[in-house]
């Protein structure tokens, strides 16, 4: 049977439509994406989700890793503007300092989507929508778990050390605020040390070593703004001859596989989920934005709380 070129094109177009790939001949949507870096298991999973979703969706993805430096993100966004991409998406490493480059994107009529983290801008028209977790609520959930533990030990003092995320980043600011809001006024819960570990295992270990040197056995709770810093701190606690998860209760955020492994080993007490798998949602929203469809200004993700007693049962379900 001779298959004409016309038939081939028609078949390709219907196949493309079925897989939401652009029909043959249609120019695929081009997205410029500036990623924070590769600082944590969470970030690695977030990047994988974005790249996989772009491939599945036929989006032409221009991906730039900023290595946790704001100046690299500004440079990447300017480059995307110069390349006339259809849409720019990024996870701002810190909340402030993006106003100027976002005005340049607006002047170039290129829509901007915030994913994962927010920016602090007076002019909210500088971005179309923000898809990401509610970090204040994550901080509240972390503190509520500790309140439940404290309720079982009336009168016991909980001396908390806090490993903060990247200074100036939305998750660090908000997770600190949410946690402080819930423990406020409780005389048994006190944050005795708080310092940034920049969301990395190495820095989390280093800062926990300093906490232990200064406060040693006085510490009985660690609140880490992400699992990677908690895992680094666990190493420091063990090297100090103390039992993580027992001598020092450990509360962290993200819900990455490493946290579940630590919980199953009895070294971490609870992780608050922060879903990095935003890729599919981002690609769909980008298509809607470029098509001029109305989209919500703020899109949040549903997340859970995973205490150690649930770790073994939940671990097989984990996708990151
Ligand atoms: C949260 C994300 C944070 C993660 C960290 O949405 O921005 O950055 O909690 C990551 O693991 O480094």
Sequence-ordered SSE layout with sheet pairings:
Elements: H1 5-18, E1 30-35, H2 41-57, E2 60-65, H3 70-82, E3 87-90, H4 99-107, E4 112-115, E5 129-131, H5 135-151, E6 158-164, H6 170-183, E7 189-196, H7 201-215, E8 221-224, H8 227-239, E9 249-254, H9 257-264, E10 270-273, H10 279-290, E11 298-299, E12 305-307, H11 311-314
Parallel strand pairs: 1-2, 1-3, 3-4, 4-5, 5-11, 6-7, 6-8, 8-9, 9-10
Antiparallel strand pairs: 10-12
The protein binds beta-D-galactofuranose.
Residues 39-40, 42-43, 116-117, 133, 171, 199, 226, 228, 253-254, 274 line the site of beta-D-galactofuranose (GZL).
Keywords summarizing the entry:
single chain, elongated, six-stranded parallel sheet, 2 domains, binds beta-D-galactofuranose, Rossmann fold, alpha/beta, 320 residues, 12 strands
Task: Give a description of the structure.
This protein has 320 residues and is of the alpha/beta class. It has 2 domains: 28-133 and 276-302, Rossmann fold, CATH 3.40.50; 135-274, 3-Layer(aba) Sandwich (Rossmann fold), CATH 3.40.50. Helices cover 42% and strands 18% of the residues. The chain is built from 11 helices and 12 strands. The chain has helices spanning 5-18, 41-57, 70-82, 99-107, 135-151, 170-183, 201-215, 227-239, 257-264, 279-290, 311-314, and strands at residues 30-35, 60-65, 87-90, 112-115, 129-131, 158-164, 189-196, 221-224, 249-254, 270-273, 298-299, 305-307. The strands form 2 sheets. The protein has a 6-stranded parallel sheet, sandwiched between helices. A 6-stranded mixed sheet has the order 7-6-8-9-10-12, with helices on both faces. Helix 4 links the parallel strand 3 (87-90) and strand 4 (112-115). Helix 5 packs parallel to helix 6 and helix 7 (201-215) crosses helix 8 (227-239). It is elongated and about 65 Å long. The chain starts with a helix and ends in a 6-residue tail after the last helix. 46% of the residues are buried. Residues 8-20 have low confidence and may be disordered. The site of beta-D-galactofuranose has 14 residues, from helix 2 and strand 9.
